[in-house]
Amino acid sequence: VSTPASKEETKTTACSGTGGDTEKEQQEAMEHIDEVQNEIDRLNEQASEEILKVEQKYNKLHQPFFQKRSELIAKIPNFWVTTFVNHPQVSALFGEEDEEALHYLTRVEVTEFEDIKSGYRIDFYFDENPYFENKVLAKEFHLNESGDPSSKSTEIKWKSGKDLMKSSRKRQHEEPESFFTWFTDHSDAGADELGEVIEDDIWSNPLHYYLVPVMDDEEGEGEEDDDDDD
């Protein structure tokens, strides 16, 4: 004759059954979460592709306006060197010799590669100057399919006795950076902050930085007027 199960045995069995059901429910929930996450990831990929197409479209639409802006900027002497000097991150790299050489800078162009995602090029156009033979100095930033960054730049053809890189190296213990050391440095393209600043910040609205001192003066005058009124 079988003995009826005790209350404790019955309770333990019930708890075990409940625990098993809970584990099963959790497992099913995790599987469903994974399925939903896959859908979210798929939509994110689709969104990235569509955003890229929009960026490519508007990159082409921007070009005639960039060209027109460059033509107008060419009418303002020393526009680009003033713009760079007024930008705190860029001016931090400038020595006196850099600034003197960049007074011959007449035009800057930033060109994103057609697919947008693989990189961009910055072209610096110069008038005849006492420092180097080049009319154009270009630096390119590339991102390969694996996402690895790299960069390359035009070889600077320095005139005799005018190599600003040599003078920069002599004072390297004091000023390890200069515009031209940045231009020729390809050791860590992924951390090239100056290239990103020129592409993302300055190129989008160079007039803003050209006018920085003027804007500061106007704000100062406004504050003085307020003080006089008081």
Automatic annotation (TrEMBL):
Subcellular location: Cytoplasm; Nucleus
A GO biological process held by the record: nucleosome assembly
Top-level taxon of origin: Eukaryota
Keywords of this entry: Cytoplasm, Nucleus
A GO CC term assigned to this protein in UniProt: cytoplasm
Nucleus in keyword set: yes
Biased composition (Basic and acidic residues): 1-11, 21-30
Record bears the keyword Protein transport: no
Main location: cytoplasm
Disordered as annotated region, ranges: 1-30
PANTHER family documented for this protein: TESTIS-SPECIFIC Y-ENCODED PROTEIN
Family of the protein in this entry: Belongs to the nucleosome assembly protein (NAP) family.
Protein name: SET nuclear proto-oncogene
Species of origin: Colobus angolensis palliatus (Peters' Angolan colobus)
